[in-house]
């Protein structure tokens, strides 16, 4: 009888220990989810809000700049060289840097110039040669929104903050899925749809948890397709992609590949996959450069998408660079042309991309809402609005639960009980270095400040 009681006691102790460990692990995941949410919520709201606006850049700019954009077709359009000559008459001291011919018959042409230290875009009616006005590139509203979205208008520091917020959003998603996952539930209430008649507390919880589940896939997609643009992770990923042999195939070069320290992104705005493409040089032949009309003819001959821009060489050895960055990834083109002979030195298109390049290119156009037109914009908008709602409901849930003199964080637990979660965090730290760096900072703050100051320790429930 005694042995049986002892066995029952052992079993009960083991069950209690497992339950305690399980509860500790749950609280730990909740605690990290809580702090990641509180710290990065403002940045994620900014990203979702600015992103939802930028999705509709084509429609917004069409309204804002309709007087610059719209023209009435009147017979044949003037040649590109004639249009540029009209701009030179207006700005005799300016340097012409690029030319965009317009992508349809009712759209003005754009000539970009450098004048008195300012980068300006002059809009030309291609049928009359008259200027419809100019815009300082710094005054383009949607470009400022893009800058705010990508780097909070704070340069490199802002870029790193945005990248850090995006990477920690992945931690939020992983921890959120763990907290959402149903345990011993037979009903879908509170899992796939909110419980309306179970009281305010449960309803508030469900308003955060249930919508979060539904937008998780879309949110993760937007994060992963946005990271290739980031200044640290994105640049390293791009370099790794290029250097690993999945970059540029020999077939894109006409002749041998150039040995150049100048990258295409240094001279032109090109698709992501072509940014690290080495820029060839023109072979000086009689010092008689091609006219811009010849370059436009080559573009038409090579069947480049009508959205292309011609970047004009500024040096004797420079090349014409044609960049088509259209709505669909499959239409992307980056082409370098010898400015004297007109020879196509490099022709890099979507079909030439490696597997990673194609995935990233498609991800970018889907991220921007252009790949599938208006339906793409609407789906992305719903995801952005969903993110804002989930963050807002989470903050409201915290505010209603929070004790008056405490932050309301779940109780910290012993490291011994959360080894698997720590391994996950370390893994994410290696995959996303800024997360790893921030984890080190968090540990130092906890060790040197939180654990030593009882007021702070009690406030943070550490």
UniProtKB/TrEMBL annotation:
Domain spans labelled PepSY: 78-133, 289-347
InterPro entries: PepSY (IPR025711), PepSY-ass_TM (IPR005625)
Transmembrane segments: 34-56, 161-181, 207-229, 378-399, 420-450
Keyword Transmembrane helix in record: yes
Keywords: Membrane, Plasmid, Transmembrane, Transmembrane helix
Pfam families: PepSY (PF03413), PepSY_TM (PF03929)
Transmembrane as UniProt keyword: yes
Name of this protein: Membrane protein, putative
Provenance organism: Priestia megaterium (strain ATCC 12872 / QMB1551)
């Amino acid at each position: 009888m005694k042995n049986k009681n002892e066995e029952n006691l052992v079993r009960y102790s083991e069950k209690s220990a497992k339950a305690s460990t399980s509860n500790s692990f749950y609280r730990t995941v909740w605690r990290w989810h809580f702090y990641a949410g509180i710290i990065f919520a403002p940045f994620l709201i900014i990203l979702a809000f600015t992103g939802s606006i930028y999705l509709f850049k084509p429609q917004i700019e069409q309204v804002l700049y309709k007087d610059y954009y719209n023209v009435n077709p009147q017979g044949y359009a003037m040649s590109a060289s004639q249009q540029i000559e009209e701009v030179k008459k207006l700005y005799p001291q300016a340097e012409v840097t690029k030319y965009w011919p317009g992508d349809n018959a009712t759209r003005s042409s754009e000539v970009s110039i450098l004048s008195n230290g300012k980068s300006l875009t002059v809009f030309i009616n291609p049928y009359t040669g008259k200027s419809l006005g100019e815009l300082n590139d710094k005054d383009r509203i949607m470009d400022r929104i893009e800058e705010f979205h990508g780097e909070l208008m704070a340069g490199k520091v802002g870029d790193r903050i945005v990248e850090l917020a995006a990477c920690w959003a992945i931690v939020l998603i992983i921890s959120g899925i763990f907290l959402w996952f149903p345990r011993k539930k037979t009903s879908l209430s509170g899992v796939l749809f909110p419980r309306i008649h179970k009281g305010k507390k449960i309803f508030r919880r469900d308003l955060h948890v249930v919508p979060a589940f539904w937008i998780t896939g879309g949110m993760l997609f937007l994060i992963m397709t946005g990271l290739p643009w980031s200044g640290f992770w994105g640049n390293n990923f791009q370099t790794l992609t290029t250097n690993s042999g999945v970059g540029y195939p020999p077939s894109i070069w006409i002749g041998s590949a150039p040995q150049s320290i100048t990258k295409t992104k240094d001279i032109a705005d090109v698709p992501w996959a072509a940014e690290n493409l080495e820029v060839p040089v023109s072979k000086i032949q009689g010092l008689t450069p091609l006219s811009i009309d010849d370059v436009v003819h080559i573009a038409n001959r090579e069947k480049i998408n009508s959205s292309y821009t011609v970047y004009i060489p500024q040096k004797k050895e420079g090349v014409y660079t044609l960049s088509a960055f259209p709505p669909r990834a499959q239409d992307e083109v980056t082409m370098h042309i010898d400015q004297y002979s007109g020879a196509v030195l490099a022709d890099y298109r979507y079909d030439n991309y490696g597997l990673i390049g194609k995935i990233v290119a498609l991800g970018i156009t889907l991220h921007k809402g252009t790949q599938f037109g208006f339906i793409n914009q609407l789906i992305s908008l719903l995801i952005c609005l969903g993110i804002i709602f989930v963050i807002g409901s989470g903050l409201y849930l915290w505010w209603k639960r929070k004790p008056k003199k405490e932050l309301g964080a779940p109780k910290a637990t012993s490291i011994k009980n959360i080894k698997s979660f720590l391994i996950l965090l370390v893994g994410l730290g290696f995959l996303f270095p800024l997360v790893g760096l921030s984890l080190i900072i968090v540990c130092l703050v906890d060790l040197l400040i939180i654990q030593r100051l009882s007021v702070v320790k009690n406030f943070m429930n550490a």
